[in-house]
User: Which sequence fits this backbone?
C-alpha cells in the first residue's frame, strides 16, 4: 500500500464528529434514511493524485490507481476527486450521457456539485466542467434529452444543467429550480422512454414519489405524486405487457426504518400522478432498509438492495433480494443471491443480461443473470483495496449503459473509475463526431464536417466512408477524406436553400458490415439550415444606445449605461467588447461603489426589433456576487423575448450561477419568433435580488442579432431568356439588366458575361436539371456551373418560355 493509500481514520475523527452533529442539526433524520449518519461517521480522507490512464506508463504517483483487486475487468482510467474544481471531499452517485454526436460523458456527484468528464476515449478522460452545488454527501443526477437534472440533501431544489454544448466543452447551469416549497431531495428518478422525471425522498409530499412536468424542460413543475410514505429510491418504467401495458409503473424502495411503516417494496401505478394507485406491497425476510431496486430487461424479475441488513447482523454477507414482478399486482419473493463477502450492497443496474452492483468496500461486482433466479458472479473490480468490511466507503454506484461498453463507477474516496469487461467484443466500427457538427451551412457549399472511426475487432474499408445529405433537391453522398488515425473530413457541395437539410454518416467494414452515426438514420438524423446571406439586424455595443427603457421594482441597482466603474465588489472592471461602455446595474461610484441590486428586479427593455423566425440573438452578460458561488434565495438574471411588441414575454434564459467574468450566450435553437410581426420583437434583461443579503450585479454588452436568408434571382416577366435591352451587353451601358420583351443576342451576351464571372445573379438551376420538367429546374443551388448555362440556353432558344 503506497503512502497515498493509507487510511488516517484517527486523525479525521474530530472533523467527522463535527460533520455528523452539523448534519443532524439541519434535519438528517434516522427515521427517513438511517444510513446517513453512519456514512458521515465512516467518512475517510479523499485519495488524491493525477488523472490516471492505462495508456500511460506506471509511475509512483499513479500506482494507487492499479492497487485494486480485479478479475475480468480492466481499469482504463481514473479521475481522483482533487481534479475537479472546488474542494470536493467525497464522491457519490454517477450517471452517463451520450451526445447526439456519439461522444460519451460521465457525470459524477460530488460533495459540492457535479463533475462532467468526457470518456469518449476511455483511456484519456477529460474533465469538462464542475457545476457548483450545495455542500452535501448526497447528490443524485439523471438526464432527459439535453438536460441533466441534479438534486441533493443540501438544498437548491433541482439543478437544471444544459448539455447542448458539451461537445464544445461547455456545460451550463440554467437554474436552481425550487417550486412548491421543494428544496432538498435524496434521489431523482427518470423514465427516459416516457420522458418523465420524479423526486424521491424530498422535503415535500411526505418524502414520497413526486412527478415533475417537463413541458418546459428548464423549469420543472410539480404535478402530483404518491405521498403515502417516504420513498428512498425507485425505478419507473413503461410496462410492456398484460393489462398494465403502456402504463407508468413505479417500483419503490419505500417505508420508514424503525417507524410505523415497515420497509419493503411498493409498486405504484403513476400514469396519472394526481391519482396514483398502489398495486402491491412485498415484505421480505431479514429486512434492514430497502434501498434501491432495478427491474430486469424482460420485466419479469426485480433485484432489491437492502443497505442495513448486513450492518445490523440480519444477514452475515452481501445479500440481494430477488422478486418476481411478472404481475406487478401480485409480487412474489423468490430468494436471494450473494457475493459471499460481508460488504453492503448499494446500487445495481441490469444491462444485456448482466447485473452490475456497486457494493461499497467490495467494489463493483458483475453477475450473469442468464438464470434470473440464480445470478452467478463472473467478474469484479474492487475500488477499495484492503478489506470488504461493513462500512460506508468505496463504490457508491455504477453506470453500465454506454453503447461503447465503457463502464463507470463512482467511489466515495477515489472519485471516478472508467472500466471495461474483459470479454470478446463483437466486430464493429464506432463512429463519433470529432467536433460540433454544422447547424448552419452555406448554400454555396464549402462547409466541413468531421468524424472519427474506431475499428473494434474488424477493419474499415475507407472507400465506404460517406456523409449522406438530403436537401430539397434529393440525396447527396459525399466522400470522406482521411486525415489519418481514423479521422475523416467531408466538404459540403452547393445545396438547395430555403429548406432544412438532414444528414448522417456511414461506413462499412471490409466484410461489408455497415455502421452509421446516428445508429439508426431511419429514426433520427442530424440537421442543418442552408443560407445564402446572414444580414445583421442589430449590432449594439452600447456605446450610444437609443430607445432602451429601464423599469422594475428594485429599490437600488437599476440598469444604467456607461463606462464600467470597478468598485471591487461584484461589478466588472471593463466592458465585454472593448467599445468602452455597457449596460450595468448600479454603475455608480458616488458611494464608493457600495451599492447593488436590492429588494426586487431591475428590467432593461429593448426598442422594437425585427425578429424573423431564423434570427439568432448573441450577447455577453455579467452576473455575479462577491462570493463567486451559486446565487441563493431566488436571485437570478433572466432573458425574455416578446413577439407582440411587449404585450407578453417568454423567459428563455435564467442564469443562477455567479462568475467573476463576462460570459457569452446565444438564442436560436428552440426560440420561436414566428409570431413576431416586422418591428414588433422586444428583448428584456432582468436582474433580481430578493432582499438585500447578497451583493448582486448584472451587465449586458455586445448584443448582435442576425437572420438567415435565402436570396434567389428574380426571373423577368418575359421569361429567363429575356434579361436585357437591345445593345446593352456590357456593364454600365443603358438598359443593362432590364428586360425589354425581346429575346435576342443582347440577352445571350449579358448572361455569358456574368456566367463567365461566376456571378450568383445567374444561378438558375440545380445540378443536372438543364431541361424543363426535370427536378430542380429553375431552382438556384448556390453554384454557377454548366447546368445554369444549359438552362439559360434552353430558355433563350425557345424565345420567351
Assistant:
Amino acid at each position: 500500500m503506497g503512502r497515498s493509500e493509507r487510511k488516517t481514520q484517527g486523525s479525521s475523527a474530530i472533523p467527522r464528529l463535527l460533520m455528523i452533529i452539523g448534519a443532524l442539526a439541519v434535519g438528517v433524520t434516522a427515521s427517513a434514511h438511517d444510513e446517513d449518519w453512519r456514512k458521515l461517521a465512516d467518512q475517510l480522507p479523499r485519495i488524491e493524485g493525477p488523472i490516471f490512464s492505462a495508456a500511460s506508463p506506471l509511475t509512483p504517483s499513479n500506482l494507487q490507481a492499479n492497487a485494486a483487486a480485479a478479475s475480468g475487468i480492466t481499469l482504463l482510467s481514473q479521475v481522483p476527486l482533487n481534479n475537479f474544481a472546488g474542494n470536493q471531499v467525497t464522491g457519490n452517485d454517477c450517471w452517463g450521457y451520450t451526445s447526439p454526436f456519439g461522444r460519451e460523458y460521465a457525470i459524477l456527484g460530488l460533495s459540492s456539485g457535479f463533475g462532467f468528464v468526457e470518456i469518449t476515449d476511455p483511456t484519456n478522460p477529460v474533465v469538462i466542467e464542475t457545476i457548483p452545488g450545495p455542500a452535501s454527501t448526497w447528490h443524485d443526477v439523471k438526464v432527459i434529452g439535453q438536460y441533466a437534472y441534479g438534486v441533493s440533501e443540501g438544498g437548491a431544489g433541482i439543478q437544471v444543467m444544459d448539455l447542448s454544448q458539451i461537445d464544445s466543452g461547455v456545460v451550463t447551469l440554467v437554474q436552481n429550480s425550487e417550486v412548491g416549497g421543494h428544496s432538498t431531495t435524496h434521489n431523482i428518478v427518470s423514465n427516459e422512454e416516457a420522458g418523465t422525471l420524479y423526486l424521491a425522498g424530498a422535503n415535500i409530499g411526505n418524502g414520497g414519489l413526486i412527478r415533475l412536468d417537463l413541458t418546459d424542460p428548464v423549469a420543472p413543475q410539480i404535478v402530483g405524486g404518491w405521498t403515502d410514505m417516504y420513498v428512498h429510491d425507485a425505478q419507473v418504467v413503461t410496462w410492456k405487457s398484460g393489462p398494465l401495458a403502456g402504463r407508468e409503473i413505479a417500483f419503490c424502495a419505500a417505508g420508514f426504518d424503525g417507524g410505523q411503516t415497515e420497509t419493503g417494496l411498493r409498486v405504484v401505478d403513476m400514469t396519472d400522478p394526481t391519482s396514483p394507485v398502489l398495486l402491491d406491497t412485498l415484505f421480505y425476510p431479514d429486512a434492514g432498509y430497502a434501498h434501491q431496486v432495478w427491474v430486469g430487461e424482460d420485466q419479469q424479475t426485480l433485484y432489491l438492495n437492502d443497505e442495513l441488513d448486513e450492518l445490523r447482523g440480519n444477514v452475515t454477507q452481501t445479500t440481494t433480494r430477488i422478486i418476481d414482478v411478472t404481475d406487478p399486482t401480485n409480487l412474489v419473493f423468490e430468494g436471494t443471491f450473494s457475493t459471499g463477502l460481508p460488504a453492503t450492497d448499494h446500487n445495481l443496474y441490469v444491462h444485456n443480461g448482466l447485473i452490475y452492483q456497486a457494493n461499497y468496500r467490495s467494489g463493483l461486482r458483475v453477475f450473469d443473470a442468464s438464470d434470473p433466479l440464480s445470478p452467478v458472479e463472473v467478474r469484479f473490480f474492487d475500488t477499495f483495496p484492503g478489506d470488504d468490511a461493513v462500512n460506508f466507503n468505496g463504490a457508491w454506484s455504477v453506470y453500465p449503459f454506454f453503447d461503447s461498453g465503457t463502464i463507470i463507477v463512482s467511489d466515495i474516496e477515489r472519485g471516478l473509475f472508467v472500466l471495461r469487461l474483459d470479454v470478446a467484443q463483437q466486430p464493429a466500427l464506432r463512429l463519433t463526431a470529432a467536433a460540433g457538427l454544422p447547424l448552419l451551412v452555406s448554400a454555396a457549399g464549402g462547409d466541413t464536417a468531421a468524424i472519427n472511426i474506431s475499428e473494434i475487432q474488424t477493419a474499415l474499408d475507407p472507400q465506404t466512408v460517406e456523409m449522406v445529405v438530403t436537401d430539397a433537391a434529393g440525396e447527396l453522398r459525399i466522400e470522406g477524406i482521411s486525415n489519418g488515425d481514423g479521422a475523416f473530413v467531408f466538404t459540403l457541395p452547393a445545396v438547395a436553400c430555403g429548406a432544412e437539410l438532414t444528414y448522417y454518416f456511414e461506413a462499412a467494414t471490409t466484410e461489408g458490415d455497415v455502421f452509421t452515426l446516428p445508429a439508426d438514420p431511419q429514426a433520427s438524423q442530424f440537421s442543418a439550415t442552408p443560407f445564402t446571406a446572414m444580414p445583421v439586424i442589430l449590432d449594439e455595443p452600447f456605446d450610444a444606445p437609443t430607445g432602451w427603457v429601464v423599469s422594475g421594482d428594485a429599490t437600488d441597482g437599476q440598469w444604467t449605461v456607461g463606462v464600467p466603474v470597478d468598485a471591487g465588489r461584484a461589478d466588472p472592471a471593463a466592458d465585454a467588447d472593448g467599445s468602452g461602455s455597457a449596460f450595468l446595474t448600479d454603475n455608480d461610484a458616488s458611494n464608493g461603489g457600495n451599492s447593488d441590486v436590492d429588494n426586487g428586479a431591475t428590467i432593461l427593455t429593448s426598442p422594437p426589433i425585427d425578429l424573423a423566425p431564423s434570427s439568432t440573438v448573441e450577447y455577453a452578460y455579467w452576473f455575479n456576487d462577491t462570493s463567486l458561488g451559486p446565487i441563493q434565495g431566488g436571485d437570478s438574471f433572466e432573458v425574455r423575448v416578446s413577439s407582440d411588441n411587449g404585450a407578453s414575454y417568454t423567459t428563455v434564459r435564467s442564469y443562477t450561477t455567479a462568475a467573476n467574468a463576462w460570459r457569452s450566450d446565444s438564442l436560436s435553437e428552440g426560440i420561436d419568433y414566428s409570431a413576431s410581426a416586422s418591428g414588433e420583437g422586444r428583448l428584456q434583461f432582468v436582474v433580481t435580488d430578493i432582499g438585500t443579503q447578497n451583493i448582486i450585479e448584472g451587465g449586458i454588452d455586445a448584443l448582435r442579432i442576425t437572420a438567415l436568408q435565402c436570396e434567389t434571382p428574380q426571373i423577368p416577366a418575359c421569361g429567363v431568356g429575356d434579361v436585357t435591352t437591345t445593345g446593352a451587353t456590357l456593364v454600365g451601358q443603358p438598359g443593362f439588366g432590364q428586360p425589354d420583351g425581346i429575346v435576342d443576342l443582347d440577352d445571350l451576351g449579358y448572361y455569358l458575361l456574368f456566367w463567365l464571372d461566376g456571378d450568383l445573379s445567374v444561378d438558375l438551376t440545380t445540378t443536372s436539371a438543364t431541361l424543363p420538367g426535370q427536378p430542380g429546374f429553375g431552382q438556384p443551388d448556390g453554384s454557377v456551373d454548366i447546368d445554369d448555362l444549359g438552362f439559360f440556353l434552353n430558355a433563350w432558344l425557345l424565345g420567351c418560355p
